[in-house]
Amino acid sequence: MERRHIQCDRDKCTGCMICEFACSAAKEGRFDLELSRIRVLHATPTLLDVVACRFCRHAACIRECPRGALSMDETTQTVSLDKARCAGCGWCVEACPFGAIALDDSVKTVIMCDLCPNHEQPQCIEFCPQKALSLHVSGTGKD
Amino acid sequence: MNPYSGKCLAIDLTNRKTEVRELPQGLLRDYLGGAGLGARLLVEWSRPGADALSPDNPIVFACGGLLGTMAPASACHAVVTKSPLTGLPSSSVSSGLWSLALKRTGFDAAVITGAASYATYLFIDDDQVHFRKADFLMGKGCLQTEAAIRQRMGDSRVQVASIGPAGESLVRFATIKDGYRLPHRGGAGAVMGAKKLKAIAVRGTRPVSVPDISKLQKACADINALLHKSAASAGQLSPAACLVSGGGRCALPARNFQQSIAEGAGSLAAECSRKDHFLKAIACPACPVACQHVYRVTEDPHSDDQVVLQEEALAALGPLCGMYHLPVILKAIELCQFYGLDPVSAGACVAWAMECFERGLLSSKDTQGLDLSFGSADGVVETIRRIGQRKDVGDLLAEGVKRASAKLGQGSEHWAMQVRGLEFASCDPRGAPSLALGLAAGLMTPGLDSNEFPASGLKDEEDLTAAADSIGICRNARLYFRDFPAEAAQLYTLATGTTMDPASLRRAGERINNLTKAFNIREGWQQADDRLPPRLFKEPVDARAAVSEKDLKAAIDNYYRTRGWNADGLIPREKLKALGMDDIQEILKGNWHGTPSHTV
């Protein structure tokens, strides 16, 4: 199985945050940017980047989770969360080198990108008007 | 479930108290949000005849109706207050991250009344409001203020709307920096300065819900694709485009309306398009268009000094002052950004002073040796700085050209290019009768996007603009909709669940415009105020005839008639009734101050 994650062409990105609107709409059924799994970073008005889970090969979040709630799903190569085990302690949030994990305070669990398995393609990519987002595909390292 | 929270935050700076008031759904439906809701709240909260810079003049920040949803180009809020330039209500729409943060605090609007006894900044943290000392911010520029507050909070989600030194020293056209651009015209920054309110920091984390999110998303995706395509192919929103597209749009004035732009426009446009200054076009939240053209101020590639070059600022600080050199214009805009000045009024003031200087009304002694002839780079940059500091000639200009020309006298009123006190810079009504009418009698601030329309179409154009400013769809993006009234009505219907058709959208716009007009009348507007500066009647420019006084009078009479007003431009009682505004007369008397009927 190949590994995939969301990547952003910074030159094309205008910082419109439509990806965040689309993500929260898909995941939460409302426009709740706090709970978007993808984030636009406005470092300066012109220095923009987008952060979403990279599904690292040796993921620090999985390693650091004290309850073993996170694991790598071998079939989809995405990080899956066992909600029953997650207590929302936020260690994975701290451990992630990309800042791609957020905490949903209302239900005390963490949230991260899952590449929208129920949709044809990730919703951020589908709605990005500038076509700045795409899927980065790489091998598993085993091949 | 709709994007309106139905709540209004009232902040009393004098007593350092806040309260939450309910906004009935009917009121929100009638006035939509943004400019309309802001005007309505201002009417309710202000006292007749209050001085714009007194504690009695409230300042309202109202979220556009669609703000917080994915609707295209909808991240707009309006600032509505009585203008220190005109003494009449002024509303201006801005968009950006601050607008979105304000909406996400869970309020549809914030009304700020009274005045603090010492320099204060507000921190609205969802539903919590903190009053904080702003000593450490005084004298800081807008961006520096923003950075200092954000650093203190340690949270990048905090968005800041601030005034610069110009607002602190009550320059009458000081602006509020709360988005990428400096869009607030009419001196809202001075109103904040008079309240000793240096900044409003906002952290909003609340969700915005809509009845049927997938339908709305579908509609948004379709419109986004269209907007993106047409905006990219047209390229009309780049600052260079406004300089070269003479046909169809207004021809830009030069040298304080003594000439038109013909000379030098091409080379300036070419400079704007070159890559050494232009960095990137960026977008406001939820906008597919990306019209904010960011430029680097100096040629130094490591410099962090960036400004958004807006067409109107380019026109006002460039050709209007006889200046066709881009780096100077960018430096002037950067100074406007630092001091918190409206670049359009600032440019018009500099141009007026330059003409006074060339005609010998201002001497080198008055300007402290500064060369103020047209096209002088030092003249433009240094005068802006002095206005920001209220120093020497800057102190005179800081009052706006109407007051400055009245003070200087000697016929300088003749070339003071203002209407009711508000300077205009980027549209020349000579040879364009509909623009002349819009400028003289219209209710919206004319700008570059004022297209030519039949004189009878002014009402329709104004109503639609008022509706767009209220539901909060950006004027720039509006140009690219296929059928704006229908598409906007559809978006509003999907987002709020309240059925809206193009006719009722226009009607809401008409209601909002009549409210503005009624407020103007309360604040002393007279028919004689609907006039243009004398220069436009007397001096033709570049084969374009001067404005005909007779034709303008006829057009104004016709406009009043189309609006259903009487010959003196006043609104008959029946007209208000027909628009469902029976309550407005009682409110206008000012009896409602602080105790609107819908107080919880």
Q: What does this entry look like structurally?
A:
The complex is a heterodimer of chains A (143) and B (600). Chain A is built from 4 helices and 8 strands. With 143 residues, chain A is α+β, with helices and mostly antiparallel strands. Chain A folds into 2 domains: 1-52 and 114-133; 56-112, Alpha-Beta Plaits (2-Layer Sandwich). In chain A, the strands form 4 sheets. In chain A, strands 1-8 form a two-stranded antiparallel sheet. Chain B is built from 24 helices and 17 strands. The longest helix of chain B is centred in the middle third of the chain and has 22 residues, at 213-234. Among the domains of chain B are: 7-203, Aldehyde ferredoxin oxidoreductase, N-terminal domain (Aldehyde Ferredoxin Oxidoreductase,  A, domain 1), CATH 3.60.9; 251-423, Aldehyde Ferredoxin Oxidoreductase Protein, subunit A, domain 2. Chain B is globular. In chain B, strand 16 (418-419) and strand 17 (422-423) form a beta hairpin. In chain B, helix 11 (326-339) packs parallel to helix 13, helix 12 packs across helix 13 and helix 19 (484-496) crosses helix 20. By secondary structure, chain B is an alpha+beta fold. The chains are: A alpha+beta (143), B alpha+beta (600). At the A-B interface, helix 1 of A face helix 7 and strand 13 of B.
Structural class by sheet pairing and helices of chain A? alpha+beta
- Total count of helical runs of at least 4 residues of chain A: 4
| Oligomerization state | heterodimer
CATH level 1 name of the domain at 7-203 in chain B = Alpha Beta
First-last Cα distance of chain B: 21 Å
Structure summary, number of beta strands of chain A: 8
Uncertain residue ranges of chain B = 591-600
Main sheet record of chain B: 6 strands, mixed
